[in-house]
Structure formats: C-alpha cells, structure tokens
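Chapter review: from sequence to fold.
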Amino acid sequence: MIHIHHLDGCAPTPLAHYLKALGILRLVAEQADPEARGWWDGDRFRLATKLSRKELNAFFLNDYCPTPLVSPWNKGSGFFHEEDPALLPLKQSESRRFSSFRDGIKASYQQIEDLKRADGKVRDIKNEAKRRKQSELSEPRSRIEFKEDRSRDESKAQVLRSSMIESQDEAARSKLERAERLVREAEEYEELLNKRDEAERNKNPKLKNILNKLRTSNNYKKRLKEAEQKYNQLKADLNPNFRFHWRDSHREWMDATMVLEDNGTP
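The token string follows.
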C-alpha cells in the first residue's frame, strides 16, 4: 500500500525548506523505501511511500542514520578542540546510527594532524601577546619552541662568524648581519616576555603596554607570519588530500559540492 504524506513545512521557498524536502526524500529512499517519490503541489510537498505515518515517524525517531557531514578544514568544525561539545559525543557514541559519522571523524583526524599542530602553533604565538589567567602562567609550548629557535639562530650566527675570519665575501657578510639581527631581536623579545611574566604575577598596570610591544616586535611578527604561512599551505592542500583518501559516505557529499579556493576559483 502506498501512503501519500502532506509535508506543509517543506515549501519550495525559502531555500532551506526546499532543501529540507529533498533531504527527507533522499533519506527515506536511501534507507527505508527505494520506491519513494516526492513532488510539490503548489507550496505543499508530497511524499509517496510504503511507510505509514506511524512508520515514517518511527523511522526518523529511531532508525535513520544521519549523513556524516564533516568539514575538518573549518576551524569551527570541532576538530581543533580536544573536547568539542558537538563532536565529542558523536566520536564516543556506540550507536549503530552514528557509525558513518564515527568513520568520517576517524578519517578526518588521519588527515589533519599536521594542520592541527600548525594551528596550535599560531594560537600559541598569538597567546604570547594576550593577557593570561593566573592558572595559565606556566611556560607555554611556544616559549619552549622560541628558545629552540633562538638557540638555532645563535649557532648559525656563530658558524657564520667563524667563516668570516677567513673570508671577505659580501654575501657571507650579509648573511652574518641578518643572523646577528635575528639573535638581537630574539633577545629583545625574550626580555619583553620576562617583563610580561613579572607584570602578570604582580598585576602591574604596565602589562597592557608590554603586550603591545610584544605584538609589534619584529620577532613576534616574523614567527607569526611563518606559522600562518605554514598553516595556510597545509590548509590549501587539505581538500585535494581528502578527495584522494576519503571513501564511503563521508566522501559522497563532497562529490556533490563545489569547493572554492581562497581566491574564489573552483
């Protein structure tokens, strides 16, 4: 027996209602009744299916599997926070209905580890020039990386100084000057970080001025620029990687979309 359901909340306009009608038809046809059909009669959407009203309600309440629409390239998607309140319940769920979602989440994490690290580095550097809570005053990861970078710059400058003893090459001299400038800027920046730490501990009113100096320092801007360039490059490569590696239902919705690059090209 065929039942015809009148879905008044699925008018052809606005677009959200139109897409809702298509979504209902697709889910019913894919997961419950392959012979289901749908059409608009004026502003009303009609759904013809073997499911009765009671069976249709039960399908959406208890049985249907949500489409695994995961978009890990978006910072707001939850993949860049350890315990995102929307993503975490799906990831930890044991329900059969969410198995496709779990597969999509797992496949996403496999592709974004480098991007997550790059995003974390950008955030850490930015946090160096922001007010912190008293509970956050321990040495952050970016401070440790900063010291490692400074140590490499000092070693590079030392090697260049040694080579200049026997050479008057102008290119080598230019490299040495740049290396020594980077070391000086790192020393100045570390001094500002120490002043920031002291001002935070003592709740010094000069803290705002120190944070402004950190944000405008050459060392801060250089490291932030490099970190953002690394993040943007990894992000630009992300969609091609997903299209190459993704399979199953979390890939299907991408095949029905057009992905635009940052410059607006498909």
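Two observations follow directly from the output. The chain has two domains: 1-64, 68-266. The longest helix spans residues 170-202.
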